Amino acid sequence: MSILFSSTGWAAEGEWPLHGGDAGEQRYSPLEQINPGNVADLKLAWSYPLGSKRGVEATPIVADGVMYTTSSWSIVHALDARTGKPLWIYDPKVPGAAARKACCDVVNRGVALWRDRVFVGTLDGRLVALNRRTGEVIWSVVTVDQTQAYTITGAPRVVKGKVVIGNGGAELGVRGYVSAYSVTDGELVWRFYTVPGKPEHADEHSEVTLARKTWSEDSLWETGLGGTVWDSMAYDPQLNLLYVGTGNAANYNRAQRSPGGGDNLFLASILALNPDTGTMAWYYQTTPAESWDYTATQQMILAEIEHRGVPRKVLMQAPKNGFFYVLDRETGELLSAEPYTEMNWASHIDLSSGRPVESAVADWSELPRSIMPSMAGGHNWQPMSYNPKTGLVYIPTRSEAYLFYPDPDFVFRPLAFNTGENFPALDEKIADLSLRQCSPTQLSAWDPVAQQMRWQETMPTTLSAGVLSTAAGLVFQGRGDATFLAYDANNGKTLWQVATNTPIVAPPVSFSIEDEQFIAVSTGMGGGSLAFNPSPYENDGHMLVFSLQGKATMPPRIARPARTLNLPDALVDRVENGSSSAAIEAGRISYIRYCLVCHGVGASNPGALPDLRYASKKTHDEWLAVVLGGLRQDQGMASFSDSLNVEDAGNIQLYVVSRAMRSRLWYSKLMRWAIDKVCIPSSWIVD
Ligand code: CA
User: What global pTM score does this model have?
Assistant: First the structure.
């Protein structure tokens, strides 16, 4: 299946006109010029600075010789795909304060292209149609209630004259939905809510009424319940079905969220929708009563593979819960499901009911439990690739545990994390977390017919990156140690690698112009691991494009500047004289609630955002103006004056200073934990 849209009708052979390469999202390139015999000669053809210091997760679209890609803050770049020359840049001017609503960095996963238009969803919830030649705005609509914690990070898809877009925000507490707008003028055509709204409001459509029966009347309605459609979709034009993946619950703890039980539809589900009307043809819930951040928003691949010797039209997904699912995509019938990574939450999927059989340790509603896969999932947003020639799916996998720690006193806090976890208690326990593997990320070649692993390569860091496979038998993937590699698709042998300027999480694509094949990938570390993965390099996001004739020079690795302590004497005195322990503890709890996601555990941030222990004198002087006054909101640091007062902000500052005063000891302890448990390369320790 390859349904391509461009101004000339069909895109040229070998371009990358749709998010997943084709409408079935296989992320497979038919190009064969670069092959296992010559890939060792692959060189940089051009690079382009994205001007991004945050995560870059976009899949570039390439059509008619132009590349359309996005960087952090939802900024769109149109580039000459042959040379990298910028044609236009569109900056939607997302308010920096919107960063506070993003669970997982100010990322964007790319645009959709249709005839003369480019569509982008912005972090603050707009859907914008741009003129493909000029980048000028044709129309722009707000798709969310901007007073709530909604974000858009996913790429839109265009189906039958409609541009379809979801949103994120379940960690902070929102109600999920997916919407279709007219490509012509941005008018809303349909909207599908994935979970029921507050009982006092009428159900918007019959599927909401169906879902409501699976929720307790005493559900935590104020959390919105989640189920957000924040990433994957796929489309089958023959069946006229649009497949949509839904996310995790808000909050995570099902005993609090829906007391008395129920499956809590349509959390963690695959929905097959009629794209003309938004009505549902079938659904499959991967994780009934989802309680572990086990989204089913991971990529869905449409393909034809054999099941018991008979070719079937299938949908394949490796969602966060660790099972690889093969469904009949016409009916939603579950054909097979097997674990593709280590897990302890369920023993297997019962094929007759289609339901997971949970283990005794799965339920953490009363006691802390160490669960595998972790909340990051056995596989997350990083796209996988299906290669029809090898019959294998190449999955960026994870294998790690996470300690879910219940908070019996949960109260909803607007614009804060509302997962139902006791983060202050978890913070104290974090050094005891037992992660079972030194290298928690892998590239896994999975046989979807036999439901077995064929080969697996372990990665040197905790970062995971998207995958491309090609007809020539190559698999391309970036790494968290700032390397880009080509593997033999048959056995995982490394055939080529190059040192890049900074780490990679984005997926590669391939395209051909005038008989020259190119491989493109963006650099730029970020996403959910923004605050946790060390890098010695400036996070200087670039588009890198390689070919066999390439002659360009790699953008340089820029070392991060040395850091110094600039602690205010008065605060140092307060920490030293021992009278402020209650204030420090209050600061710790506020820090965990409002600051940790971006600034890191223990006020220590080895990643791309400021490590507050090394804040400048100016930052300390301006502390209240920054935290409460929004002085640096243009840089992504929102005001927290709606949640914190002057005393709270001062306590956070005191806590940060106390951390800095013990930083060497504590930081080295954290790093030792990181090396022992999650295997961050020791060369990357920057402190
Ligand atoms: Ca989530």
Answer: 0.95
